[in-house]
Amino acid sequence: NGCLPTEDQGWCIITLQGHEGVSFRQTEQAVLAVEKELSEITEITEVFSVQGFNFSGNGANKATFWVSLK
Asked: What percent of the chain has pLDDT over 70?
């Protein structure tokens, strides 16, 4: 499609970071909530998440999502 730049690969990255001291379990609940919201968007085909990591470092309060778009 001529409207999309060639570098557009049809995916995006979302990072999540809770407050310092948030437990892994609390972050897991947030990850599940985000995954549920993303699953309701028809333009999204796949979501892959990693808990305990984002591009600002590692920690129980962090997560990263890779989202594939139609």
From this structure: 91
